[in-house]
Amino acid sequence: MKKILFVASEGVPFIKTGGLADVVGSLPKCIDKKYFDVRVMIPCYTCMKPQMREKLNYVTHFYMDYNWEGVYVGILEAEVDGIKYYFIDNEKYFGGPKPYGDDAKYEIEKYAYFSKAALSALPVIGFQPDLIHCHDWQTAMIPVYLDDRFRQGEFFKDMKTVMTIHNLKFQGRWGIDDVKNITGLPYRYFTADTMELYNDANLLKGGLVFADALTTVSNTYAEEIKTAFYGESLEGLLNARSGDLRGIVNGIDYEDFNPETNPHIEHNYSAANFRKEKIKNKRALQKELGLKQDDKTFMIGIVSRLTDQKGFDLIAYIMDELCQDNVQIVVLGTGEERYENMFRHFAWKYGDKVSANIYYSEALSHKIYAACDAFLMPSLFEPCGLSQLMSLRYGTLPIVRETGGLKDTVEPYNEYESTGTGFSFRNYNAHEMLNTIRYAEKIYYDKKREWNKIIDRAMAADFSWHVSALKYQEMYDWLIG
Ligand code: ADP
Ligand code: GLC
């Protein structure tokens, strides 16, 4: 039995701010239990929902040498759906109202602590993974710490690491002197061929240099990040390591995201009966959100972190124009204030057409995926994207920009060949996006049968973890030997 440990800063069902949590919560369940014992380690945030916190059991604690002190490391555990979770507890670091804060230096101190604690906890709990699968910059210090001290000991000697990039934009950068001081790592880890980048220490770079293999969450993004536009200054390194870098497209949990059984949605439906049943969700949502009650109006959904990454400047640019059409726009998201206020403004201006829900809600997200006709996601860059996969699963047609995972998972409608599962445009241009939205509107209003056939294909597409989990297994096998 090969032993794998996932280490990440968030994971469903305990704590989630975005798609990383969905992946960490759903992928381990789909790795073959006959051959792999996969466990997950995340921080024990005090902002976890109380009903989830109740499930955790205290295991033990110890004190770790960190940032010139002996620092408390608590270990808790829980089991969900047959997967064992470990939690690293320290209220100083994980006690805030949300997982991530704004102070970059403190975030580095916090997640370098988490990375070192994750390694230090292993001999204490007696779990010796063959491979540690690290996710994003928050865990990128694990391969570095392993290289520095841990691998010198028998316990860690043969431990392999994989570093998965979910989002290259976030790297954990700060001045070298401070990071050296905080992490206690020697100078050799702060050179141009290790963690230094443009005179700063860069934690993600450390992970990318020292991990045994690198992955990211779609094929297209794996290629894009080798270019200057998407590479966030790490394209040189990613080119140098391109032999060790592969793209494995994300899946979603097909049991959770199932329109036939999901408890959050008003009316369950399936690929066989959506033509009659899906509309009931639209009616319910129009009522709930105070939009005009009309079966026919083309309803566009957005569920997203409200950041530049997701293409909201394009949307802001054409909102007035788009609202002249016979459409309804339902937004659920939080993030940058200017985008939150932009949607609030348009909801005020076009009350019965635009609904701005500026908060986080699992339940409302499912209702939107189920109720809308189309889902808009015009990202500037998108490592994979899960929202478009959720929309496909619910028969809500994605309108996306052809980048990263969006390009790999949404096949654009071709009216001549009757193929495709959604709509897409190429350039980061507001009117190219608007034309594509209007093309979708035209098919929806004038060729309803065609529209429904696109839904047939969208709902038949399979983005469960089956295929991708096998690719991870192959990689683990190859690395562990
Ligand atoms: P990213 O990880 O970049 O935010 P993804 O598309 O991979 O983008 O994943 C986003 C996840 O977060 C999806 O599960 C989506 O439904 C969820 N989500 C985003 N914003 C909200 C919100 N305000 N309320 C509920 N779920 C949200
Ligand atoms: C990141 C990316 C998103 C991806 C998710 C899970 O948050 O922005 O594209 O789907 O990670 O891998």
Architecture overview:
With 481 residues, this protein is α/β, with parallel strands linked by helices. The chain has two domains: 2-251 and 466-480, Glycogen Phosphorylase B (Rossmann fold, 3-Layer(aba) Sandwich), CATH 3.40.50.2000; 274-462, Glycogen Phosphorylase B (Rossmann fold), CATH 3.40.50.2000. It has 19 helices and 18 strands. It has helices spanning 19-30, 50-53, 91-94, 104-125, 141-148, 176-183, 203-210, 219-224, 228-231, 235-240, 274-289, 312-322, 337-349, 362-371, 387-393, 404-409, 430-446, 448-460, 466-480, and strands spanning 2-7, 36-43, 57-66, 69-80, 83-89, 131-135, 160-165, 173-175, 196-197, 200-202, 213-216, 245-247, 298-306, 327-335, 354-357, 374-377, 397-401, 423-425. The strands form three sheets. It has a nine-stranded mixed beta sheet with strand order 3-4-5-2-1-6-7-11-12, sandwiched between helices. It has a six-stranded parallel beta sheet with strand order 15-14-13-16-17-18, sandwiched between helices. Strands 8-10-9 form a three-stranded antiparallel beta sheet. The protein is globular and about 70 Å long. The two termini are 12 Å apart. Bound molecules: adenosine-5'-diphosphate and alpha-D-glucopyranose.
Give a quick set of tags describing it:
alpha/beta, Rossmann fold, 9-stranded mixed sheet, 19 helices
